[in-house]
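Researcher: Good morning. I'm working through a list of sequences from a screen, and I'd like to move beyond sequence-only analysis. For each chain I'm collecting a predicted structure so we can compare shapes side by side. This is the next one on the list. No need for commentary yet; just the structure.
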Amino acid sequence: MSRKLFAVVGDPVSHSLSPLIHNRWIGEAGLEAHYSAIHLQSANAAADIRALSADYSGLNITLPHKIAALQAAATASAEARAIGAANTLVRQDDSTWVAHNTDVAGFLTALTVAIGSQRQGLRVVMIGAGGAARAAVAALAASGASLAIVNRSLANAGTLAADLAPGADIADLAQLPALAEGADIVINSASLGHAGASLPALPAGKGRPFLDLSYGKAAAQTLESAAASGWTPHDGLPMLVGQAAAAFHIWFGISPDEAGALRACREAVAARA
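Model: Good morning. Structure tokens for this chain:
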């Protein structure tokens, strides 16, 4: 049996812990497979992702290519189509991709870590309007949360609201402090840490949760700033592991050891710090 190849595709991607997670699970299951990282800088990402089906049996997609991944697929799950972004691809027998979105499952894992299982009537400020935000907003809107979407581009925030949460408020980053005053949780999905940018100062958190959907160096500045303002910081590692587990199940039909993978990720992040 030839070894099947899997990978995470993104820009940047060298920081990704996805190879650590999936190769750990592949080893535990005794599978003939290998998982790597592909750095893709492309003016035509959809075509490049489509071409990878010649060699790869499955892909995870991270920023900024989640919308391109959906475009690269021949078919898609109802959830991926509704969200308008895909983070998991599986190759079919005709070498075309089927797109899935496991970010919703991963996000709900991270949200439960941050606030517990009670989500009805939650007042949420969401920072960012990219692929991860689309999955999170879809999940939050379905649970009846009250949403404000804050983004550098008001147009992109408005598109996200219109597509997935028509009742949501939209605002630019300058309005974040005022909106955060009344929030039960603030969630950052923007890739500020990758670009070296920062958020406006938050109001006093009084112990409320602040969830950054990134992890490691990319999330360090926003989480440190939130903690300094009295918010309880949570990173995106539970989301990373949760979405990875859902993808692994799609590829192999196996439910892997999430707790062990999360511990390994925490150790890896600590070693890098």
